[in-house]
What we know:
This protein is an alpha+beta fold. Among the domains are: 116-248, Uridine Diphospho-n-acetylenolpyruvylglucosamine Reductase, domain 3 (2-Layer Sandwich); 251-486, Vanillyl-alcohol Oxidase, Chain A, domain 3 (3-Layer(aba) Sandwich), CATH 3.40.462. The protein is built from 16 helices and 18 strands. The protein has helices at residues 8-22, 33-39, 60-71, 140-148, 178-182, 191-194, 222-228, 262-273, 311-321, 341-349, 366-370, 374-382, 402-417, 462-478, 493-500, 504-514, and strands at residues 28-30, 53-56, 79-82, 98-101, 116-124, 127-135, 152-154, 201-208, 213-216, 236-247, 251-259, 286-293, 323-333, 359-365, 393-398, 424-430, 447-453, 484-486. The strands form four sheets. Strands 5, 6, 7, 8, 9 and 10 form a six-stranded antiparallel beta sheet that branches. A four-stranded mixed beta sheet has the order 1-2-4-3, with helices on both faces. The structure holds flavin-adenine dinucleotide (FAD).
Amino acid sequence: MGEKFPTPTLLIVIFFILSRLISTKGYSLRDDPESIRLASSDYGHILRENPAAVLYPTSIDDISSLIKFSNNISTPFSIAARGHGHSTMGQAMAPNGVVVDMMSLKNHHPSHASGIIVNTFNLSVNNYYYYADVGGGQLWIDVLHATLEHGLAPVAWTDYLYLTVGGIAWTDYLYLTVGGTLSNADISSSAFRFGPQISNVYEMDVVTGHGDFVTCSPQNNSDLFFGVLGGLGQFGIITRARIALEPAPKRVKWVRMLYNDFSAYARDQERLISVNGRKQSNALDYLEGSLLINQGSPNNWRSSFFPQSTYSRIISLVTKHGIIYSLEVAKYYDQHTETTVDKELELLLKGLSFLPGFVFEKDVAYVEFLNRVKSGEEKLQSQGQWDVPHPWLNLFVPKSRISDFDAGVLKGIVLKRNITTAPVLLYPMNRTKWDDRMSAVVPEEEVFYTVGFLHSSGFDEWEAFEEQNKEILKFCASVGIEVKQYLPYYKTQQGWMNHFGSKWKTFQKRKALFDPKKILSPGQRIFNK
Ligand code: FAD
């Protein structure tokens, strides 16, 4: 009693039956237990929400028809695009709605079998404009392979790439999709110089919450373009993105330095990211900071940089100081720059205040460098420690409060609670590399830090990490450190309003314009409970 009739679930089933009767196109809307099971969990392994059905589209029309169908009934059902479900708190789920498996469109492109087209466009004799048109359900690693065939690579990368294993949707193998990452920001250690991936997109095709197919760019349909970038899937489903490329480097000089003094560490990082012009040959290509804390080995699943022979020295250092700060930088080079790269790197690192004797160097091939997260991940997979809860917390912290954050959060909460053995990232970025018209939210200051607590836990233990995350957020609020969550998760609309701050009105207006029935990405819990 009290339940509206027909329910969204029933309507989805009717849609399914009708679609099978009238369609010869081969897509399918499934509600078998396996499809539902796969679409109801994610990398976080904390929440579980069952959809009523899962759409495996074979064309963009399939997605458009589904969204139009939902719009045209009295009780619309919700629809979530799912890339590879590497969210941690149900963001790609659609409770009682339909999940759209974007990876089904992996091989879809009107004119290309791989779904990825790489182009070079000659602007003038010496000035090339390189890009790739890639489907929203493509994995970044496939984009890399396709572009490397042309000697090119995407300008900005996530730090997580993985070789594809057969392209089967939702296997336990790990990737991030283009649409899933562009819905957040896609930050990486080159963001200080090239911005996040969302700053390196020229154009997109999007199916809006009305079911309309729209091509958008900074010049055309710009409100949709900027809304979708960092838009948490709220305004449309990305089916194609035109991504900026650059000539791929051949090799990488890769250096790590250790610090025990936080202010020296922060000062050095900020100095290094101040040289950040896109074309500036004396700028670093990569800068990442992380913590060594409470761990048996100085390596973790994100990095196997340190050779075994250095373990005992580094572990003694960590034991002595509690926290050691690691600064990791890289400079790419090729046959044209191999004679100058060492000198450039030396000049850049001159005068840094790392601990004497704690600088480590490597020289590796570019692809090996990009795939560096892979080996740690394989190890965790083989030990059954990958498909476990991931109570992550990712924050952007304004530069002016990063020392307070170190004292109050890292030394105050994290060291005292003594449960963090996971990678903790901490490095700065430049706000000028982010376009304020995009939906993504960052602190107001010119320089801000990303801090990521990438916890894994046992199935009975994740609450302890959640408690720590809550304490961190509470502490920041209590002392006025205005952090912004990255990959945000809020339970109330007030939480979201605070998160977006001055951007909230625009975000709301865009929702009313592009998805007025609030159909898309309900798992973000911004407009749906
Ligand atoms: P999903 O989890 O499937 O979806 C995420 C959100 O995007 C959902 O709301 C979904 O509805 C929406 N969405 C998915 N596809 C589309 C589409 N085509 N159009 C519109 N909306 C869509 N992030 C970084 O910035 N940098 C990193 O280096 C980084 N490393 C990571 C490493 C690991 C191991 C993991 C698990 C995550 C990492 N992340 C990183 C976070 C990651 O970028 C986000 O979680 C991203 O959303 C995951 O991509 P996905 O394809 O799995 O998206």
